[in-house]
Design brief:
The protein is α/β, with parallel strands linked by helices and 330 residues long. Helix content is 42%, strand content 15%. The radius of gyration is 20 Å and the shape is globular. The two termini are 13 Å apart.
Amino acid sequence: MRHIVGLVMLLLAAIPARAEVAEIRIAQQTSIAFLQFNVMKHRGLIEKHAKALGLPEVKVTFATFNGSDAMNDALLSGAVDIVSGGPPGLLVVWSKTWGSTQEVRGVAALSQLYWLLNTRNPAVKHIRDFTATDRIAMPAVKVAAQSVLLEMAAAKEWGDAAYERLDPLTLSMSPSDATAGLLSGGGNFNSAFTVPPFQEMQLKDPAIHTVLDSREILGASSTSFAWATKKFHDANPKVFLAVVNAMKEASDFIMANKKEAVAFYLEDTRAKVDPDLILRVLEDPGNVYSATPLGAMKWADFMHRVGRNKVAAKSWQDLFWPEIWDLPGN
């Protein structure tokens, strides 16, 4: 694949800079899964790499969205250029647009975090212990990555035909609200499938324990991606490469400067979270920031196998634009 990337670089050198957009509009979510964007914003990394590729000054704007559905609508309407979210958010729009003029593929991976399904029900030690009286709060029923991951776990336990077996127990709730409710024990649910650092906050209560760790299902897997349309990719090759290079540098920065990255995140989001807790999450060797897509085919194969996606990916490269095909993805 390295010769393909080298050819791309040679072709870029021959493209006049005046063909490129003057502004890049990026949609992000507030989770630490998208920490690269906070770093890119504070360190001016897209602007830096655009200049290195011979582009004139590029303006970069960031908008915050809640959930992949709204971002995909904005992406396909041309309101934003690059969006971000969990694996299902990319895979759904990839499948729907495959081979069309609005084709969408991934730009790069962002984070490899692990998710914990926690409960305060002492009788639940495994997903097979859930009963009709249990309720599981998660970011978005049938849409969020946690929802699809729970379906993966159900399929592993009971077979693909039963992949939706636990869906009736789920309800939609933000990670912060789910954490508050789980800790208080007074909500209409007794379990939560959220994200760091909320899952760690939950486990500070000795009455709460973990039922499912995402690594049991996925192993090492990217849990967030950025993606863009064919129109933007093809019309702005130097800008696109500048974004990819900025994402790679931001990933390296986070791994080497975790405390500073946390400060950027808290300044941007104004989240009422203990900085030391977030720092401990980043220092966990199970949490990695990298542009290399890992586990993408596990998500894609499952979603196609159970009928969530109509198009089957032959390889992880089908899901991403060529600028990262030299990375050791899977």
